[in-house]
Amino acid sequence: MTIWPPSPDRLKRPIYRSIAQAFIEAVAAGEFKNGMRLPPHRRLAYDLGVSIHTISRAYEELTRIGLIKGEVGRGSYVTAGSAEVGTPWQAVGESEQVIDLSMLVPVRSAWHDERMRDALRALAEDLPISAYSSFRPRTTLRSHCDAAQIWLQQHCGLDVPRERILPTNGCTTAMTVALMTAAVPGDVILTEDLGHHTIKALGRSLGLRMKGVAMDAEGLLPQAVHDAATKGATAIFVMPSGLSPTTAFMSEARRLAIVEVARKCDLLIIENDAWGPVMKNRPPPLAALAPERTLYLTGLSKLTVAGMRIGWLVVPDRLVTTSRTRHLVTSWMATPLIAEIATRWINDGTASDMLRFQQEQFTRRNRLARKILGHLDLRSGESGMHVWLNLPEDWSAPEFVAHARNERVAIGASANFQVSDNDHPNGVRICLGATSERDLAEGLRILSTLAQSTQEPAVFAL
């Protein structure tokens, strides 16, 4: 007997979860193919003898964990395992009692709230006219580039002239400009096989071909990069300081080896260091080892408060004009008001204080994760913003994510980070910053219990 649709007499309360679980089991059993259309809410509600509201809640649950998607006027479709992977974070309503370990955000406290209020009050009293009236990026953001230069030197290990610093509206904008600067449509970009969750879709939208490269606990394998580059590639997109979902962290020796391959194969390097400064005792960035070919990006939203959408793209001398042009046609310039707050926080030490706060918080939270999940196959850095859990053989990542959500814990599955169709670790990313330490501990304990349990057989199978 097939698992889907479920038999009405086997539904258990809460009914919507029981329906969602039946769908998950049916996906695992191979009863669905990507792109298949699900029955309309009204028809399924009639067939199962439940309310349309119940079906809507079941579909909402499946949408949140990335197994289906809805299209206005067309209905709901199966997306489990498709190339169009969803985001690793889940939609969590304000009224839901969910421990959100899916969103990669910094820890926030009342102290952060007060510092932002102070900054806004100060702006009201002493706001430069250029911050709200100028269309000239280099003139408006000149003092901000001076502050960014200080930040990059103090916390990123980069001593660069301000002419090579391009302020952007966060790291996503910096990523986009970097890719547009380094490559043209049709070019191949090499990256971690399990990498940044937006890089595949972003590359596709720019007409670029993203190719996943084999990696280990330190990230990209130099020989694998070399072998892929000999078949044709323009650049490498890399996250060397623990930012990859598996927390891969490159030693200095590995960084030098990657630089050697890039020089030998004449590859540009795009280095994503969005929250790298949180990581203590980092080796020099690739941009310091190979400044002539590295486009480096970082920012403040992961280090201070999430709304501080300011980033910086550091480019080689020969690409300064190209990067500025690409930025002008996409974003024109970074938002001056946010840049003004960032400038003041860097100059008065607030940003550095906030960075130290994040380092201390994530050091504590990584210790907590190792204490609760350390008996499992866990990968954790000293002060990273997330950990990675390789799952036992009994679990697939989508099923584990779905079961965790049923237990009111939200996490992200490995498929959300997959760049190629190569075999990749069957695991989940667990973010550590979005909730209180008490709730984090509770969520981790729930995941620990779940990982050690054996999945029950499908409720609806005979």
Q: Would you mind describing this structure in some detail?
A:
- The protein has 462 residues and is α/β, with parallel strands linked by helices.
- The protein is 41% helix and 14% strand.
- The chain has 17 helices and 17 strands.
- The strands form five sheets. A seven-stranded mixed β-sheet has the order 4-12-11-10-9-5-6, sandwiched between helices. A four-stranded antiparallel β-sheet has the order 13-14-17-16, with helices on one face.
- It is globular, with a radius of gyration of 23 Å.
- The C terminus is likely disordered.
Feature tags:
41% helix; disordered C terminus; seven-stranded mixed sheet; four-stranded antiparallel sheet; 14% strand; alpha/beta
**So what's the overall shape?**
globular
**Mean pLDDT level:** 90
Q: Structural class per helix/strand content?
A: alpha/beta
Radius of gyration: 23 Å
Beta-strand segment tally: 17
Alpha plus pi helix count:
17
Assess the beta-strand content as a share of residues: 5-15%
Strand order of the largest sheet: 4-12-11-10-9-5-6
Major sheet details: 7 strands, mixed
pLDDT < 50 runs, ≥5 residues: 456-462
Helix amount: 40-55%
- How far the N terminus sits from the C terminus, by CA atoms, comes to 7 Å
